[in-house]
Design brief:
Elements lengths: L4 H5 L2 E3 L6 E3 H5 L3 E7 L4 H19 L4 E7 L4 H8 L5 E2 L5 H10 L7 E5 L5 E3 L2 H6 L3 H4 L8 H8 L2 H10 L15 E3 L3 E3 L15 E3 L6 H7 L3 H9 L14 H7 L3 H9 L12 H6 L4 H11 L3
Parallel strand pairs: 3-4, 4-5
Antiparallel strand pairs: 1-2, 3-6, 6-7, 8-9, 8-10
Helix pairs in contact: 8-9, 8-10, 10-11, 10-12, 12-13
Length: 305
């Protein structure tokens, strides 16, 4: 499936206030696009829509090249038309249910309201557009590349092409923390999940979690998962090896905790500070679920011969 607005949404869209059609390419050309998955029967949607309309109008007044397309989950045409009449933006025609299903599957929409943000080429910027537009700084932050979670997901999963792509869009990702306002933990392979009493990062045999209430950087995530190719990319892009997460731990500390010895060797060869290794015993480390054998490995590597 192509990414162009026409291929994603069809040739025409409905204009607000009456249902006249407009060419998709004309309406969305050279604009950042928000796909708004919503329905009138959904109370959280009805609550969010007025805020979204306010921010949409503010962005338009500020001259930002932004357009929203309502992708309806309403159960009847009448409900769709009534709900769209309350919105100042475009809509996917209600009869175009095949496109609606394709979009929902493509962007893994599992609940509403969901706001997916695309760039003018149809490439995903963020699937958490609600957070982007809800921030008071949404106009200053437009087009919200910095709120993107895909970069951090890619560091976690070792997706080198995506890491390179997002660094190309915004090189300052190397200096950004995973957004604290997510108030959630990332479970590798499952996405951002709200958890109660979340666990710490587990060792090499377990799943790696990022505690977002003391957020980390992309280099931490790649190091903890042993993605040496991503670590090399981030270091070449200017990532600071000594950057600390909210607990004061460096990427080398994360790699050691998780038992990623190849990554440990890479960071040590690049000159990473290893002072933490002598501040804790193996027994203490293992109480914290850290990889005690890798701590001993590090101590042996740094000890004078």
């Amino acid at each position: 499936m192509s990414n162009t607005p026409v291929s994603l949404l069809g040739d025409t869209l409905l204009q607000p206030g009456g249902g006249a059609t407009v060419s998709t390419s004309e309406a969305l050309g050279n604009k950042t696009i928000g796909l708004y998955f919503s329905a009138h029967w959904c109370p959280p949607c009805r609550k969010f829509t007025p805020l979204l309309a306010e921010r949409y109008n503010n962005l338009k007044e500020a001259g930002k090249p932004f357009e929203i397309v309502f992708v309806s989950s309403d159960r009847s045409r009448d409900a769709f038309e009534k709900y769209h009449s309350m919105m100042p933006w475009l809509a996917l025609p209600f009869h175009n249910q095949d496109k609606k299903e394709e979009l929902s599957a493509r962007y893994k929409v599992s609940g509403i309201p969901t706001l997916v943000i695309l760039d003018s080429d149809g490439e995903l910027i963020t699937d958490n557009g609600r957070m982007a537009v809800s921030n008071e700084s949404c106009i200053e932050d437009f087009p919200w590349i910095s709120s993107n979670s895909i970069f951090f997901d890619s560091c976690l999963s070792g997706n080198t092409s995506e890491v390179k792509r997002w660094l190309g869009k915004s090189p300052d990702f190397v200096t950004r923390k995973a957004p604290q306002e997510w108030h959630a933990n990332h479970v590798l392979g499952e996405g951002w999940q709200p958890l109660v009493n979340p666990p710490r990062v587990m060792n090499a045999a377990g799943t790696v979690y990022l505690m977002a209430n003391h957020p980390a950087y992309g280099l931490h995530l790649a190091a903890a998962n042993g993605h040496t190719d991503v670590v090399r990319i981030l270091l070449a892009a200017g990532s600071d090896m000594e950057v600390e997460d909210g607990d004061g731990d460096t990427p080398l500390a994360w790699a050691t905790y998780c038992g990623r010895r190849e990554t440990m060797d890479l960071l040590l060869a690049a000159g990473a500070n290893h002072g933490f290794a002598n501040s804790i015993s193996r027994d203490q480390y293992e109480v914290l679920k850290g990889d005690g054998a890798s701590l001993e490995y590090l101590k042996q590597k740094i000890s004078p011969h």
